Amino acid sequence: MRYQDYERYHGRTEQDELRCFDELARELMVVQERNRGVRGAAAVDRAFHGKTVLAVENGCLRVRRDLPPGLRQGCFRPGAELAVTARFSNANGVAQPDTARDLRGVALRVHAGGDTVHDLLMTNWPVSPAADARQFVAMASAVAGRTSTPAKLLSLALRLPRRVGPWATVRIIGNLVRSSRRSDSLARETYYSRGAIMWGEAGPVRYRLRPVPAADVPPGTGPDKLRTDFARRLTAGDVEFDLEVQRYVSERRTPVENTARRWWFVRYESVARLVLPRQELDTGQARLVEHRVDRLAFNPWNTTDEFRPLGNLNRARRAAYQASSAHRLGQRYVTEESRRTALLNELVGRVFARVNRRWPWHRLPTRLALLNLAVLRRQLRRSNLVDPDPPERVEVRRPGPLPPPEAVAHRTADGRWNDLSARDMGARGARFGRNMPVDRHQSDLPDPVEVAEALLTRTDFISAPSLNVLAAAWIQFQVHDWVQHGRHPVRERSIDLPLPGDRTWRSTTDGRPENVMHIAEDAGDRNQVSHWWDGSEVYGSDAEKAARLREDGGRGARLRLEDGHLPTAPGPGEVVLAGFSDSWWLGLSALQTLFAREHNAVCDALQDEYPDLDEERTYQTARLVVSALIAKIHTVEWTPAILGTKTLDTAMSVNWRGAPDQWLSRLGLRLLDPHAVHGIPRTRPDHSGVPFSLTEEFVTVYRMHPLLPDDYVFVDPATGEPRAFGFDDISGPGTQEVFRHIGLAESLRSLGTASPGAVTLHNFPKALRHFERDGEIVDLAVVDVVRTRRRGVPRYNDFRAALHMPRISAFEELTTDPETLAALERLYGSVDRIDTVIGLLAETPPAGFGFSDTAFRVFLLMASRRLQSDRFLTVDFRPEVYTPLGMDWVERGGFADVVRRHCSELAGVVGTGKAAFAPWTDPPVPDRHAAHARRTASRRSVAR
């Protein structure tokens, strides 16, 4: 029979049970935190079996030569001798003296050849106090942090009934009272598996270790008396146990799912003998062995399909033990929300929900608005993080790969191992997440070409006077780090849009005009760059690209530059040799060049300060520093610039630096959002219960193409005369020639003094309506509409509702402009059909905002999540990882500092803080001519 014939899922489906297991695993990590609080320890220990009594690596399991034929399964062959690692322990999660009343346990790792192991876990009581995983975790949570038996029993009596019911509470307490007892010798205890496992074709079995009688030794005494006793026995000779199994008879007599019931009147059959050989336990070598074994992550699912664990409690153990072990080893973290915080958020949330019906958060006084945002963000974290991948099925496993040392200390090229317990979380190739359920039934109507023509086309440039064009270049610079969908070549797989009337379109540079527009289809829903904030636009998202960008054939610390500029790309498809060069234009070139130079400056400073640093450590540390500096600039400078209100200025400062020095604000944030008190970089990673990824909705709200102007003016460094360029003149393959002629300083100055476009309807750059990239010609206004639909992002009204915002009921709520209103009504007919990208642009933003409040809700959720989930921006944002110089570089640095460091002539021009992304003060033209003359004279003097 198959294992499925013996199991019954708890819940309607297997997926329901798996989701429950994830919640239970998180609760067990909270148990570990409570136990740590009782001990006052810096490190987390196991949730249970916290005290190691004995650990050895040289045990042997000798299979019986007369093993019955039905039990000859897998590695259990007559006469086989299998190496065993053993750990004996006291069951309480808080280490107690061996004299205390407690359960005792043993974990065996049977080495079956190669990397195949079988972990067998047992305790010295034949049944579990709990019948299933839910009851077990409820019990564990109730006794967490309590060491005395009376305190445990009182907590169980008070807290268990509401979670498991009165009868289960009575049974659990009774089993705990009977099983928690004093022991004189672990070598004389019998240990039981409680739950069942498959035994190959023999079907389900339960197993036990029964001690083999041996000569007595003087009893141990004191708090470590069990270790003393075991040590004396091993000094005198071998210690042996018989491994025995009970075979399954029927679900009534031998239940698989209920671990609280014994298998009565079913005889045990001997399978093998465990021999722990004679040895000394008080040597230095024995202590090293104990330390190694103590760090092992035992899990009953470390086995093979033949010996698959069975039953609900065993199925839950896979996720629970994996999470608990990762938490203990500092690879996974958990943050417990106190009851006070939960209740206050619930109460304050209801108050703000009523207040917001009349006064939205952005119209409240700053302190109230901050609290309103804290409550909103918590609601979004709880409701709007959707894992696109189904829960991992419960399957047997081998002990997972350990993070390589270099991945623990530094970022990897492709984003793997940022979360040390989940290698591929957020890595290149990981799926995009979701902030709301996918709309899989999107209509292709109205015609996206007509939508773009009527609602997006720029006729007159609408400027955003509070920003400069560097703000537009910056967000593209960031988006290149965060997200990239793979695309099929348009000739192979395309979305075909018939064009209205007699219009034609050429979809490739060498194609012919057709009355159909071909748009390249997405190649799946996986990110082609890492999801982490790791500077991949500068460093690349794979090891091969990262090596190509470095000096000395990929071994140097510095990035390759040619006369201070990015190298020309050696192959087709790349404009320059950079981490990301898609949709290349002069603004991107300026920022990429600036931060490549910044990386090299950090390298030089590190090697000056720490001469013993090798090239690899210098490179990796500089990458950490530059990536963190970019994250800081975006958080506390770019964001307050584009969301120009006092509330958002304070909120983003809170994200990075912690609560303001105002007792009322600090008190409110401490009560509602403890993370905010000290700033996210001073907390631990927290994924809010969902693996980290960037989302399709996040991609949608960052479609900010209207920021780009069509026309630009740069001062010719040779003549000092202004020169006009169109976007086509400073984009694509010709970008670098223009950029090198103008130079970095003049490029930054010109972009810093000019204003971008406003993020609104009727302002889509003309140049992007006929944009060449990779041999294709695209209308990005049409593409923005089509791709959002195809990716299943809900339409605007459903998008708002999913973000807990009121639906609009009339087109007039979006606009009062007669022409726009007429176009919306003609194209959509109903407000529920409005495309999300159109609704976001049509919506009137809050005062001072550069984009809509609806888009801001996704930003509110994901902006802090990008920081909060990242190990290198939280728990590992510290001098031991970044070096003291690196920490100081980030803490003191800003965009203006970077500009001044590499373009000293702009020291009096570039603004500080968020003013760096506001229009810079432009010195009078004669001053620029004089500065140019001085630079020319200086160069001639050096040449002479």
TrEMBL record:
Pfam families found in the cross-reference section: An_peroxidase, Catalase
BP GO annotations: defense response; fatty acid biosynthetic process; oxylipin biosynthetic process; response to oxidative stress
Top-level taxonomic group: Bacteria
GO molecular function, one term: peroxidase activity
Compositional bias per record (Basic residues), positions renumbered to this chain: 931-944
UniProt keyword list: Dioxygenase, Fatty acid biosynthesis, Fatty acid metabolism, Heme, Iron, Lipid biosynthesis, Lipid metabolism, Metal-binding, Oxidoreductase, Oxylipin biosynthesis, Peroxidase, Plant defense
UniProt cofactor(s): Ca(2+)
SUPFAM superfamilies linked to this entry: Heme-dependent catalase-like, Heme-dependent peroxidases
Ranges where the Catalase core domain occurs: 59-143
TM spans (from-to): none
PROSITE patterns found in the cross-reference section: PEROXIDASE_3 (PS50292)
Residues covered by region (Disordered): 386-410, 921-944
Stored InterPro entries: A_dioxygenase (IPR034815), Catalase_core (IPR011614), Catalase_sf (IPR020835), Haem_peroxidase_animal (IPR019791), Haem_peroxidase_sf (IPR010255), Haem_peroxidase_sf_animal (IPR037120), Oxylipin_biosynth_metab (IPR050783)
Ranges in coiled-coil conformation: none
Protein name: Catalase
Organism annotation: Geodermatophilus tzadiensis
